[in-house]
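DM from R.C. (forwarded with permission)

"hey, sorry to bug you on a friday — could you get me a structure for this? deadline for the figure draft is monday and I only need the backbone to look sensible"
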Amino acid sequence: MKKCVLFTFSLKPADFFISGCRRYNFLVNYSSLVTILNEGSLSAFGGNSRYGMIYEKFGFTPIGSSIESSIHGQSISYEYVLYEDPDLLFVGDRTLAVGGDHSDLSENSVNQETKAYQNDILSI
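My reply, with the result:
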């Protein structure tokens, strides 16, 4: 007769991490923006988007409610990022993810003027 060993997986460490993020983000109240970079073009994602969990679950504060809810995000310019000037900027590099060249957003002169860049809180 074979023995069957059951493994249990606990989500408590993940829950602990998420709740810690939420508490910290509540205290610092940084504005944030989630973007996807694709072939040099930027798309922004708000709280009601497919990346809304970054705001909802982790407690990051979106820059505003002006971003349209869309599957592919709202097309934005680098000047828009500077205008909104988020404290935190999340950037997903789709071009790199599908085998293309890495687009270094930190080399963009407009981006270098943002609080996120100047405070070294640009997450790529």
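R.C.: lifesaver. DSSP finds five helices and six strands in the chain.
me: no worries. The longest strand covers residues 31-38.
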